C-alpha cells in the first residue's frame, strides 16, 4: 500500500472515530441530563450511622453517654477515641442539658467548632505514641471537614487545626 493510500485510509478512519465519538457524546449528554432530572432529590452520600464511627457520644435520658464500637480493642486507639469522646462529654456538660448541646449543632461551622477540640485531644495522644504530627493533623482536619459536609473548607480546617492545636 502506498503512503498516500495509507494516509487517506487513516484520515477516513479518524473521521469515522470522530463521528462515532460525537454521537456517543451526545447520547451520554442526553443520558446525564435524563438522570439529572430523574434524581434531583438524590444524595451523593448516605447519612452517617453510628457504626461509621469508632466511638460516638449521644444523649440518653439527658446525659451525654459514649458508646465505643466493640471492634475497637487496640489499647492505643481505644485511648485516642476515649480522649476524643471525653471532650464531647465536657462540651455537652457546658449546656443546660445534653439535648440542648445537640440542638446547638446546626451548621457546618458549628460541627467544625465541636469536632476540632475533640480531634485535637485525639491528635495529641496519637503524636505522643509516634504518629507523624503533620500527616495526622491533616488527616483529622479532613475528617472534620467531611463530617461537617464542608470538604471545600478542608484547607481552612487544616489551618485552624494548626492554630488551635499546637
Report on this structure.
The protein has 166 residues and is mainly α. The chain has 2 domains: 1-42; 50-164, no CATH class. The chain is built from 6 helices and 2 strands, in the order H-E-E-H-H-H-H-H. It has helices at residues 3-38, 75-93, 98-103, 108-128, 133-148, 154-164, and strands at residues 55-60, 63-68. It has a two-stranded antiparallel sheet. A hairpin with a 2-residue loop joins strand 1 (55-60) and strand 2. Helix 2 (75-93) packs antiparallel against helix 4 and helix 5 (133-148) packs across helix 6. The longest helix is centred in the N-terminal third of the chain and has 36 residues, at 3-38. The model is unreliable at 27-43 (pLDDT under 50).
Strands ordered across the widest β-sheet: 1-2
Low-confidence segments:
27-43
Distance between the amino and carboxyl termini: 73 Å
Query: Could you give the order of the helices and strands?
Result: HEEHHHHH
**How much helix, percentage-wise, in residues?**
55-70%
Any idea how many domains? 2
Strand content: 5-15%
Shape: globular
Features:
7% strand; 2 domains; two-stranded antiparallel ribbon; 166 residues; single chain
Amino acid at each position: 500500500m502506498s503512503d498516500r493510500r495509507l494516509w487517506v485510509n487513516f484520515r477516513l478512519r479518524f473521521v469515522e472515530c470522530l463521528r462515532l465519538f460525537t454521537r456517543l457524546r451526545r447520547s451520554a449528554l442526553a443520558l446525564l441530563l435524563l438522570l439529572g432530572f430523574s434524581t434531583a432529590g438524590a444524595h451523593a452520600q448516605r447519612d452517617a450511622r453510628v457504626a461509621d464511627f469508632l466511638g460516638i457520644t449521644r444523649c440518653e435520658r439527658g446525659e451525654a453517654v459514649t458508646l465505643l464500637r466493640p471492634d475497637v480493642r487496640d489499647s492505643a486507639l481505644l485511648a485516642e477515641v476515649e480522649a476524643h469522646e471525653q471532650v464531647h462529654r465536657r462540651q455537652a456538660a457546658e449546656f443546660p442539658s445534653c439535648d440542648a448541646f445537640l440542638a446547638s449543632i446546626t451548621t457546618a461551622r458549628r460541627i467544625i467548632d465541636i469536632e476540632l477540640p475533640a480531634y485535637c485531644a485525639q491528635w495529641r495522644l496519637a503524636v505522643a505514641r509516634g504518629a507523624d504530627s503533620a500527616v495526622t493533623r491533616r488527616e483529622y482536619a479532613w475528617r472534620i471537614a467531611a463530617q461537617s459536609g464542608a470538604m471545600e473548607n478542608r484547607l481552612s480546617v487544616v489551618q485552624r487545626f494548626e492554630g488551635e492545636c499546637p
